[in-house]
Specification:
About 20% of the residues lie in helices and about 25% in strands. Helix 4 runs parallel beside helix 6. It folds into two domains: about 240 residues, Zn peptidases (Aminopeptidase, 3-Layer(aba) Sandwich); about 70 residues, OB fold (Dihydrolipoamide Acetyltransferase, E2P) (Beta Barrel). The longest helix has 17 residues. By secondary structure, the chain is α/β, with parallel strands linked by helices. The chain is globular.
Amino acid sequence: MNSSVSTQRFLARTLAAPESPTSLTETLADGTRLTLLDAGVLRISPTQPGSHRALISCGVHGNETAPMEIVDQLVSDIFNGQLKVNNELMFVIGNPPAAIAEQRFVEENLNRLFSGKHRHSTAKEAARAARLEALTEAFFLDGDEPRLHYDLHTAIRGSYIEKFAVYPYLHSRTWSESQFGFLEQAGIEAVLLSNQPSGTYSYFSSHEFGADAFTIELGKVRKFGDNDMRRFAQMTESLRRVVDGTERFVARRQAIKIFAVVEEVIKRSENFKLHIPDEAKNFTEYDAGALLASDDDYEYRTQRDGERFVFPITNVPPGQRAMLVVAPVTDLTELTEA
């Protein structure tokens, strides 16, 4: 392995040594310090404290390649001096072995194993979740700047709303209007407001460290090299502003759509069935009374006109989420946090 952090591109280096814990440190000409903490985990510190502490993650699902290519370009531009670092950063490629295998995961969905849920699993991803939790905690608790976490994904299905974000359940905290504005400027068309805790990476950062954190869906799953990176230009440019400290988070939402999660459909047994076509896209709209899912002694029918499904999947273990059902929100004040 090369002794320099920057002698290989971040993504190539990670995939060449997907389980290496080697720690390396390097300092750029302007004093920016780069520390490779683990395979796919790179911390970058500027010479002067910034206004935010930002975690940008990708590859939590190994077949979601576009976010990894976005992060790889950001890191490359930092190495090459084309992007100045003015905030504390940590970049994470979540599941390198799954990326090599071109699979969503190797043994278990990594994005269901955070917030300690890894303690109940023996899958390879469980150890990775525990390690990422520890590194994330060390990063966020190393300073008192406002914390950000943008966890970048792409979806299995096509979608009527191509780019959207999931806002983790906030418990007693309130939604950030400036983050809605930032996401809209980054090309995000809709935000889903979660209604309960979960095992996602973004929920972990949000709940444990008070970070403004989001799971961000940027389009459809494609293989490495098949992504049209022009489609992610707004998000990439917005992340560059986070890196160089020019993003002030003062925008307010204009046209971004807001949806509330009204049902988290859980697969209860192997008899679970989705009653939606295989080719149906995320955010397909239904009238009230439509049957979307059934299982032993359970069925979900839409409760009102305009409900839509997101993330439908049947090949999950019983007890895990098989689909979200969402409905549009016109007035956030109508919603309350428990």
